[in-house]
Amino acid sequence: MENLIEIKGVTHAYKTKAGPFPVLRDLNIAIPKHSFCAVVGPSGCGKSTLTRLIAGLMFPDQGEVWLHGELVKSPRKTVGMAFQNPVLLEWRTILQNVILPLEIVAPSMPKAQKEARAKELLALVGLEGFENKRPSELSGGMRQRASLCRALVHKPDIIILDEPFGALDAFTREDLWQTMHQLREKEPFTALLITHDLRESVYLGDQVVVLSGRPATTQYVMQVDVPGPRPLEMLYETDTVERLAVLRREIQIAQGRAVA
Ligand SMILES: Nc1ncnc2c1ncn2[C@@H]1O[C@H](COP(=O)(O)OP(=O)(O)O)[C@@H](O)[C@H]1O
Ligand SMILES: [Mg+2]
């Protein structure tokens, strides 16, 4: 299958006053079109740095990032992003927040069309009737749903999710995992999800990449060949429990708490 995202031999160090601070070393990840890649790794190992390199907000010292068979050389407007903090603008309504990417990538689209598109997504994630509320009038889970709609509104081929469910309570998180599967069914996309939740990585990922400690390299790759939309019951199946045990051990190795 065609790889939509390819990280090839990426090595990167931040330039600091104390000298270069190595963050990624010879990192390789290949993500086929319409598949979901979950990335887990120790805190501070370089996961958010990886997302910035894919979005073209930074460029690696060595190696290459390819999207759609094109080398990334400049910021990509067509990447949808969502973060742990939903970063919605309080002076805009939920609807106005969600249409924001369309104002940037499709300025000539009629306003009614932009709004119709945003409303369609908001309905899909269960936010019908909240279009005219301000972000502060919504719960954390609802704000995160709105931020997912904003990441998807312009139909990006690629979405990058940097721990978007990390700050939510366990039940809201599981709801949103299911929502992600529903969104994928409706409009396939290629996703890279950073998470520190192993259950989340296995439930959502078609592959799970474990990064080593900083400077991060690809330590372990697990394929999860379970067709979507996946039922939550999957989390309690023997296969999943076995996968989680393997990942747990890999994380411990990455953290230097166990030997390979
Ligand atoms: N702009 C920067 N300049 C210098 N060091 C940075 C910068 N951004 C992040 N770092 C450092 O690089 C390492 C990796 O950061 P990050 O990619 O945010 O890690 P993660 O998302 O895996 O927790 C961390 O040790 C962090 O302190
Ligand atoms: Mg991070």
Strand % is 25-35%
Indicate the mean pLDDT.
Answer: 94
Percentage of helical residues? 25-40%
In spatial order, strands of the major sheet run 6-7-8-3-9-10
Question: What does the model show?
Answer:
The strands form two sheets. Strands 6-7-8-3-9-10 form a six-stranded mixed sheet, with helices on both faces. A four-stranded antiparallel sheet has the order 2-1-4-5, covered by helices on one side. The protein has seven helices and ten strands. The chain has two domains: 1-78 and 190-260, P-loop containing nucleotide triphosphate hydrolases (Rossmann fold); 79-156, no CATH class. Strand 4 and strand 5 form a beta hairpin. Helix 2 runs parallel beside helix 4. The chain has helices spanning 47-54, 94-105, 111-124, 140-152, 170-186, 198-204, 238-254, and strands at 3-16, 19-32, 36-40, 62-67, 70-71, 79-83, 158-162, 190-194, 207-211, 218-223. With 260 residues, it is of the alpha/beta class. Adenosine-5'-diphosphate binds next to strand 1, strand 2 and helix 1.
Write the layout of secondary structure elements.
Layout: E1 3-16, E2 19-32, E3 36-40, H1 47-54, E4 62-67, E5 70-71, E6 79-83, H2 94-105, H3 111-124, H4 140-152, E7 158-162, H5 170-186, E8 190-194, H6 198-204, E9 207-211, E10 218-223, H7 238-254
Parallel strand pairs: 3-8, 3-9, 6-7, 7-8
Antiparallel strand pairs: 1-2, 1-4, 4-5, 9-10
Bound molecules: adenosine-5'-diphosphate (ADP) and magnesium ion.
